[in-house]
Amino acid sequence: MDKRVYFGLLTVILLVAALLRFLALPDFPPGISHDEVAEVLIAEDILQGEHAIFFEEAYGQEPLFLYLVAGAIALLGRNVLALRFVAAAVGLLTVSAGARMARRLFGPYTALVMAAGLGVMLWPIFWSRVGLRGMTLPLTLCLGAEALWRALQTRDRALYSAIVAGIWWGLTAYTYLAARGIPLLCGAFLLYVAIFDRRLLRQRWREFVLVLSTALLIALPLILFLRENKEIQSRVYEVDAPLQALRQGDLAPILENTWRIARMFSVRGDPLERNNYPDRPVFPDPVWATLFYVGALVALWRLRDVRYGFVLIWLVVMLSPTLVTIDAPSFVRALGALPAVMLLPGIGAAWALQQCSLWSKYTRILCVCILGGAFVLNVKLTVRDYTQQWPLIPSVQFVWQTDLADIARYLDAQSLESTVVLAGLTNDSMDDPSFDLMSRRRDLRVRWVDTGSPLSTGGAWIVPRAGGRLYVPAIVPVNALLGTYLSAWGITAIPHAHFTEFVSPPVLAAAPVSAEFAVNVGLVTLDVPEQLFAPNAAVTVFSIWEASDTSYPPLKIFMHFVDAEGRLWAQHDGLDSPARFWQPGDRIVQTHTFTIPADTPPGRYVLRIGLYDRETLLLYPLRNGQDFYEAAIIQVPAWE
């Protein structure tokens, strides 16, 4: 193939690949996942000077991607684009690096088909648009493999190329967990060469030694660190049940995974929406699927050619991380095999074009047209599945916090006041950085509550001093009792597609502050709605607080139901609004629900309420020195 034609076609493929990766990058995936937020938080720690060879946060993280994200944040700012730009750029570079490697190994036709697969198939597109570290593994593998074969095939600067290959393959250790299979890949390939091409081994043993020694030298610091800190790789031990079963002599999980992996190419792919459009195979169209199987057969037929043996060994070995773990086939754990998977259709296409040439030039033209049509078809299938169907899956909307993303977009388009209250499921950890990354507004002063989800202790509400708006994502329920209680105060609801907007009037009508705590929080009142106080009865009480500061420790409220002698009969502990987000004048409403025990005798009881630090459990007393405030007297009647 003429070089100009080759590079022209490769440029077209790269342009299409770039569009599929960078177009609407902050919007697809439709929001941001907690895993992505964790990457940003670690990257920000790096920018603050907290460096590590392996980060313990988020189940343990290899550092290469995180340092790249830190650089992107420094250049582009703290937003979703900065995070995902790194993954998209790595993914696009993988297309180019894969084409370069394939051209060196098998020629331009294989290279173009491999680039096309890497460029437009959903598997690499998916992981090029998610702000996670997985795509750094196939990139470093491709760069290392190209340098390796340059060292083995040429005399010019062969030792230099071997060192470069060792550097790239050593860096794989710092990319993703599945890189643990690289030593097995190297060992298996060396054994294969020793069996099928001893001449190559004798002639190029220096290059092999340089590659391995350089890779080991690069990876050694991380290897030693993980050897001394095995416990920080907690994620490994959560997903390796098939491997553990194999060690116990049970082959069933491995055999089941083998069957599932064998079907992932054209029948049924990764079932998890976190990794794929559920069950979509690697090659959903018959042309690319056929070329994959043809390529595999060609490689097997030419097994004594070390190039083909290398590809097959790469495929098998780098599929092992998903073979020995749960949820097979896992497209994220199989990312190390991605280049080999995409190489095989290229090998099949090159063989098919060669066979077509034996018939006539028109047959060859027909084959090229079929390949071009399949390329266009896969672009359409990828766009359809990724942008139209995958985002509609409820679990996708939950994982990527689509409701919260819609709130962010709504507020970005409004000129409303900057004081808002948001409801979330993880309002003391991931919700605030998630929203901050998705929102373009920097003037918002956000308070957070959980209005009554199963994760809450009852539900909370905040009304700023001048009134304000509370936005509750559809995924977050509102405690029915809390909603009914607050509706009487003039709070109105405005429904939207994925959230509800509640408008609160200025400062809730409530009694003057009843108790002042030393931590600069006042108990305005304890509202005890009329209800039955009897054994086995569930009692709901609302406490209303007022903040007077901007800096608070991790507070928690306790409510004790005690008799006249101070004996505890029932209690409720919780605060569903993180105090660190409060502003002076905020009114916080917390729901307390507890059950009066069946053996509670009739008599006079007291509701005591107080504050403590949820981390240290230290009490925060009232300003008069008492540990609690006796807020209400309850009479439990006698029952016959």
Total strands: the figure is 15
What summary fits the major beta sheet?
A: 5 strands, mixed
- Which range does the strand content fall in? 15-25%
From the spread of the alpha carbons, the general shape counts as elongated
Describe the structure.
α15 packs across α18 (338-359). The radius of gyration is 31 Å and the shape is elongated. The chain has 640 residues and is of the alpha+beta class. The model has no long low-confidence stretch (mean pLDDT 94). The longest helix is centred in the middle third of the chain and has 29 residues, at 361-389. Strands 2-1-4-6-5 form a five-stranded mixed sheet, covered by helices on one side. A five-stranded antiparallel sheet has the order 3-12-9-8-7, with no helix packed on it. Helices cover 49% and strands 15% of the residues.
Question: How do the strands and helices of this protein lay out in sequence?
Answer:
Elements: H1 3-22, H2 34-47, H3 64-76, H4 80-106, H5 108-120, H6 122-129, H7 136-153, H8 158-171, H9 182-196, H10 198-203, H11 205-228, H12 234-239, H13 241-247, H14 252-263, H15 286-301, H16 306-318, H17 320-323, H18 338-359, H19 361-389, H20 394-399, H21 402-412, E1 419-423, H22 431-438, E2 445-449, E3 460-463, E4 468-473, H23 480-487, E5 492-495, E6 499-504, E7 515-517, E8 521-527, E9 538-547, E10 555-563, E11 568-574, E12 587-595, E13 603-613, E14 619-620, E15 629-636
Parallel strand pairs: 1-2, 1-4
Antiparallel strand pairs: 3-12, 4-6, 5-6, 7-8, 8-9, 9-12, 10-11, 10-13, 13-14, 13-15
